[in-house]
Amino acid sequence: MKRILLLCLLVVLATAPDLRAQETDSSLAKHVTRVKTPVKHAAADTVGVVNGVVITYGDFKLLLSGTINDFVGRTGVHVVTDSVYSQLVDTAWSRAMIDIIEVSEINNRKLSLTDSGVIALLLEHPPEYLRKQFTDSVGAFHKDYLSIALNDPRNDTTVRDILAGERIRLESERLVASVTRQAKSDSARERTFKAWLRRTRMQARIIDRRMNFGFY
Q: Most buried pick, 67, 133, 183, 184, via CB within 10 A?
């Protein structure tokens, strides 16, 4: 390996239309709303507020689209009942609340990472998809080539995408470690963190306006 390897990863941002039983459009169901006259909403409209952080219509619709894509990918089901759609909405709403709570707690506990901090951790403990790209035919991992690729200006766009995703993962791991530092086993850490998250959600200040936007 004598030449500099350029990092090439395919980043796919899946999108899908809303699902609702009763009508189908080729493969996916159309979104059937109970609102008699469809109302257009601006992307910046407020769907909810969690501890002072606004969840906009645009952001929540994108998050719900991702939740629907995950459901379709897992189940292969393209048409759902109203009750299942409501569960998907609740799942997306729960994810939004958890993300806001975790980001706030990461900042409060000073657990956030800079770009250089993320890169340093990736070099020491590369995730499998990165390790494989810089492992040669005899199974030797080349950390130096990964370092070159992550710091090469020609890879700026791809590296930004990688750092954004890995920062979320690494900071979340740091939060779990901080909350569960007294736990002695993986199962105990999982129970401790879930209990902490449940208490924190119950204490959150929440304004929920989903019904106003047809999310129910």
A: 67
Q: How far apart are CA 54 and CA 61, in angstroms?
A: 14
Cα 93 versus chain centre, distance: 12
**Contact at 8 Å (CB) between 56 and 44?**
yes
Orientation angle between helical segments 186-203 and 156-179, nearest 10 degrees: 90
Residue 7 and residue 21: Cα distance in Å, rounded? 42
pLDDT tens profile 7-64 = 333 323 333 334 333 333 333 334 333 444 556 899 999 999 999 999 999 999 999 9
User: Distance between CA atoms of 175 and 104, rounded to whole angstroms?
Assistant: 11
Q: Rounded CA gap, 206 and 203, in Å? A: 9
Token digits for 21? 């039983």
